[in-house]
């Protein structure tokens, strides 16, 4: 998901002139950030850099919007004598264009949405919360008429996820660009080839109160895809790339280094805490998908998670999968449930891998940490990265996931024994 990875992207054919202009301004800002201190958290509102006291960014391979928070010192005008453009940007409901850089690396593009004023003996601060452009898709209900080659306002026929996302996002008052790296239906994995079915849905029906994000996510789910965002705030259709070398090897020493770093400023009364939780109630033995096609003859497909007590069962009903894709949907239901159950947070003391690249979701790491039941070296997928900027330094938490959760292969339970 990093712009420097050389990925081959397919861009929306509906890019509007204002999108093209914004992209040019964004690239110019990226060029200006070259050479920035690699441990500096930079927030840009409009065209102004804002000095940040603390900051946090969250970016995941399977979440449609990425978000950030930043705390800034603030003195209300006219006492402050500060930049009026910044004062205007941090006013409530201003919705300024926002970018976040970690060192020279752009990690988030979107808007500032939320402003919280906090008062203490130390003075007045503002906590700013922003998100990628795609947050509007997460929050907003579908708007009609959306009858693009379909049967009704919220009905479509013979259309793929890619084409539907392009058409609906292009029709928004402020269009959102759509990109994908799924130019082929076959994605290489460590266990073999993961076949993605990007075939059109015969029929799709949405509720008038359904969110754009809900619609795109459930359709992509049925085709074995992930819906996320990139550092430019685009809607990004992808799939886990599991045949890749690990970017780092992590272990007990990394955990001890993080605890030492956190303790150096926390004091004994506020010792930092980190935990890895394993919740068996989030896993199921059998996952069943039921489809009721137009002729009313129901059919189903099943996927299993061996090793789980077989009383534990999970099922969903979907009207728009299509009989041919039921098996993919059942396997993906299992995958998403396993992803939630098996994700392990792992703390690191830097935003960067040992080679100097930014930690990014979708890459791999090798882990050997008996204290969290990873008793032999095992390669994990980085599902999510949370970047923290605090007085004690720049740190991150990597959310790690066994890649088998996305391939449909049995989870090697021995790694947790």
Descriptive notes:
This protein folds into four domains: 33-132, Baseplate protein-like domain - beta roll fold (Phage tail proteins - horseshoe like beta roll fold, Roll); 138-238, 3-Layer(bab) Sandwich (Phage tail protein beta-alpha-beta fold), CATH 3.55.50.10; 255-274 and 343-416, Baseplate protein-like domain - beta roll fold (Phage tail proteins - horseshoe like beta roll fold, Roll); 280-341, 2-Layer Sandwich (Phage tail proteins - 2 layer sandwich fold), CATH 3.30.1920. It has eight helices and 23 strands. It has helices spanning 17-32, 84-89, 135-139, 161-170, 212-221, 252-266, 326-342, 404-407, and strands spanning 10-11, 41-45, 48-50, 54-60, 67-73, 97-102, 105-120, 123-132, 155-159, 178-180, 186-189, 192-195, 201-205, 226-229, 235-238, 249-251, 286-291, 299-304, 313-318, 344-348, 364-369, 374-390, 393-401. Helix 4 (161-170) packs antiparallel against helix 5 (212-221). It starts with 9 loop residues before the first strand and ends in a 10-residue tail after the last helix. Residues 2-7, 146-152 and 184-195 have low confidence and may be disordered.
